[in-house]
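Retro notes
What went well: the complex prediction finally ran end to end.
Inputs used:
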Amino acid sequence: MPVLLLITLLVFVLLHAAPGDPASMLLGQENTAADLEQARRRWGLDQPILVQYFKFAAAAATGDLGKSFRFSRPVKEVIAERLPATIELAFFSILIALALAIPLGVWAGARPNSWIDNLGTSFGLFGISMPNFWLGIMLILVCAGSFHILPSGGRSTYGVAGAAQTGFYFLDSLLDRNWPALKDALLHVLLPALALGANMIGILMRVTRSSVLDADTEEYVVTARAKGLGDRAVLWRHVFANALIPIVTVAGLELGTLLSGSIIVETVFAWPGIGSLLITGVTSRDYPLVTGVVIMYTVVFVVINLIIDALYAVIDPRIRY
Amino acid sequence: MPSSILESATDAPVAAREARRVRRLPLKVVAGGIVVAALIIVGVLSPWLAPHDPQHQALEAMLKPPEWLGGSHVLGTDNLGRDILSRIIYGARVSLLVAFAVVLISGAVGILLGAVSGYFGGKVDFAIQKLVEVVWAFPALLLAITILAFFGQGLFNLILALVSQRWIQYCRVVRGQTLSLRDRDFVAATRALGAGSPRVIRRHILPNLLQISLVIGTFSMASAIISEASLSFLGLGVPPGIPSWGTMLADSRSYISTAWWLALFPGLAIFLTVLGINLLGDGVRDLLDPRLKRAMKQ
C-alpha cells in the first residue's frame, strides 16, 4: 500500500513537473484566460500542492480517475471496457510462452551441449533479442499478408462474436457455446500473443535451462537416481519441481515486461486493450486518461507481484510467511 | 646480445600466451564484439558510408524494391523515395548515441547511489531503496512513456525517459556488492589509515564493482536500443526529422502489403544489433563468472 501511494505521488509529480500549466494541459489547446481560471478553481489547482495530491490520491483510491477528454466519459469506465482485451491477450501470451519455453528449457538443461541444447539456447537468445513489434509486423506480413491464414488485427471478425457478457471473447463464446466465435477469437489472438510472448519464451527458456542444470547436480537428485528411479521421473519429479522457484520468479518479473510489451503489440495489431488506449491518450493529449491508465498498469503490476510471492509458498512448502 | 636473447626468450612465450588467450576468447564475445564494433563504425562514419542523402526525397522513385529485385537502390526506397540503406546507416547513429548515453548516465547514477546506499546504510539506504521500490513498481516501458507523454518528444527527454528506470539494476546489484565489500579487511585497513568515506568509496569500493557493472551495462545497452526503437515506433522517441530504425518501422506499417522491404530491413538491423550485444554480454558474463562457466561446461 505505501508503494501504491508513492506511485500515485510520482505520477502526480510528473504531471505537475511537466512544462506548461497543468490547467492548460488538462483543458486542451483552445481556452481563454477566464476558462483557465475557472478550470483551476474547478480542479482545485489553485490550492496548495499537498492538498491537491491528497485529493487526487483519495479520489484515485475510490476508483475516480477523472473524465476522459477524448471519450467524454469517466476514465474508469473506458478502462473497464478495454481491460478484458488486454488480460485475454496477456493470458494467451503466457500460455504460449510456458507451453514452449518450459519443455524446451527442461530438455536443453537435461542434455547440456547436445543439439537440442544448442537449438534451445539459440532460440532463447533469438527470443530475448527480438523486438516484439517487429516480430508482430513480420507475422502480419507472412501469415496475414502472404498466406492469408490468420487475421492481421482486431479481436474478432465483424458480426461473428455474440453478445458480450464478460468482455472476454474467449470466455463469452465458450459460455454461449458459439463455436465459430470461439475459433474466430482464438485465430485473432494467436499472432499478437505470439509476438508479445516471444521475449518471455526466450527468457523463461534460459532460466529453465540453467535452473535444471543447477538442480541436476544436487544431492537429492543423486539419491533419487540411486533409488533406481528412471530418468524421466527424476527429471520431472525432482529436478523440475526444484527448479520451479526461479522459473516462477522470473515469469512474475517478466509479466511487467509483458504488460509494457502489450502497449506496443496492441498498437501493431489494433488490439482494443488498455495498451492501445494509453497510446490514444498520449497522442490526443488526454491527460486524465493517461494518468488513469498508468495508475491502472502499476496497480496490476504490484498485485501480480504479491500473487507471485503467495505462489512461492504453494510451490515450495518450506516457504512460510 | 645476451640481453636481447633474454628478452626474446622471455617475450616469445608471453606473446604466444597472449595470442592463445585471444584465440581462446569465446565465439560469443568475438561475434558480439564484431557487431558492437560495426555499430560504432557505421554510426560514427555514416556520412561517408551512406550511398545517398537519407533525407533526399525522390518522388519518382517511391517504394522501389531492392536492387536484386530490379530496383535501383541496394535495399530499395521508402514511401517518399528515400534510400533505405542510407536511412538504416544514419539510424545507427541514433541507436548508438542513445544506447551509450543511457548506459553511461544510468551507470553513473546507479553505481553511485548503490555504493552510497550500501556503504552508509541506515536512513540514506532506506530512502534510496524506497525510491528504487517505487520506480521498480512501474512496468519497464510505462515510466518512459509517461515521461515522454508529459514532457514531450525529443532526444534529451528520450534519454531521460530511458535512464529513469535503468539505473535501478546497477543500484540493486552495486548495493549488494558494496554491503559485502564494506566489511572486508582491505576496507577496514584503509579506514584505519585515516581515509574518509568518499575516498574509500572512490578508490576501493568502486573499482571492485567495475566487472559486474560492465555486464549489466552490456545488457542494458541492448534493452536501451529496443526501447528507443519501441518509443520511436510509437511516435514518442526521436523527432520525426531524424532517421531512426523505430520511426522507419512505424512508417512501414501503411505499406506492409505492397512494400515488405520497408519493414524487413530496419527491423533486421535492430534484431541483429541487439542479438550481437546480448551475445557479447553473455560471453563477458561467462568469462567473468567461473562458476557459471563451469555450469555451462557440464
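What we learned: Chain A has a mean pLDDT of 83.
What to try next: split runs per interface for comparison.
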